[in-house]
Write a structure and sequence with these properties.
Strand content: under 5%
Shape: globular
Structural class: mainly alpha
Number of helices: 7
Number of domains: 1
Oligomer: single chain
Radius of gyration: 17 Å
Helix content: over 70%
Order of helices and strands: HHHHHHH
Length: 193
C-alpha cells in the first residue's frame, strides 16, 4: 500500500470538480423544499459506497453487459444535460410523486447527482492513472465535503439568499451544460473513431 499526497490531492480535485457539490446546492435546497428533510449521512454514505464499489467492479460490470466506458459516458452526458436544462430554464423534467426524505436521499441525490455517470466515468479514468488506495482516500475526502455541504445547505441558503441561489443555479446550470457537451463530444468521437 502506497499513499501519495500528490495523487490523492489530484484525484480529490478532479472528483470534486465533477461531483460539483457546491454547484448542486440549489438542487439540494429544491429537494429539501419538496420532501422536507434530507438524510445527509445516508446520502453521503450511499454515494461513497456506490463510488468505491464502482471503482472495483465498474469496468467489469460494463463489459459484462456489453457497454464500453465511452457509451456509458455519452449516456451520462445526456443525464447531466437534462439536469442542466432544469437548472437554467427553471423547469422540472424529473417527476416523482412518491418522493420522501428517504427516497430523495438516495435518488436523485446520492445517485445520479453525487455518484452519477460523470463521477463514475471519472473514477474509471483515474484508475488508469493512479493507485487504487489513493483514489479511495480521495473519494472518502469528497464524501466528507459532501456531508458538510448537505448538512449546512440551509445555512448556505440563508447566507446567499433566494436571488443569490437563483443566480448560482443558472451559472452552474450553464457550466453543467458545458460539461455535458464536452463529455458527449469527447466520447462520441471515441465511439465513432
Amino acid at each position: 500500500m502506497q499513499l501519495e499526497i500528490k495523487q490523492i490531492f489530484t484525484a480529490f480535485m478532479v472528483l470534486f470538480a465533477v461531483i460539483d457539490i457546491v454547484g448542486n446546492i440549489p438542487i439540494i435546497i429544491d429537494l429539501r423544499k419538496k420532501v422536507g428533510h434530507i438524510q445527509s449521512e445516508k446520502a453521503s454514505l450511499i454515494a461513497g459506497v456506490i463510488m468505491i464499489v464502482f471503482l472495483f467492479v465498474g469496468k467489469s460490470l460494463l463489459n459484462l453487459i456489453g457497454i464500453d466506458v465511452n457509451s456509458f459516458a455519452v449516456a451520462g452526458a445526456f443525464v447531466i444535460f437534462f439536469i442542466a436544462l432544469e437548472m437554467i430554464l427553471g423547469i422540472t423534467l424529473y417527476k416523482d410523486d412518491e418522493s420522501s426524505a428517504v427516497t430523495a436521499s438516495v435518488f436523485p441525490l446520492a445517485f445520479p447527482l453525487i455518484a452519477g455517470p460523470g463521477s463514475l466515468t471519472t473514477l474509471l479514468s483515474l484508475r488508469a492513472e493512479f493507485e487504487i488506495e489513493n483514489i479511495i482516500v480521495a473519494v472518502i475526502c469528497n464524501v466528507i465535503v459532501i456531508y458538510v455541504v448537505l448538512k449546512t445547505s440551509a445555512k448556505i441558503e440563508k447566507l446567499i439568499g433566494k436571488n443569490g441561489i437563483n443566480i448560482i443555479r443558472k451559472v452552474f446550470g450553464v457550466i453543467l451544460l458545458a460539461i455535458a457537451v464536452k463529455l458527449f463530444a469527447h466520447n462520441i468521437k471515441m465511439l465513432l473513431a
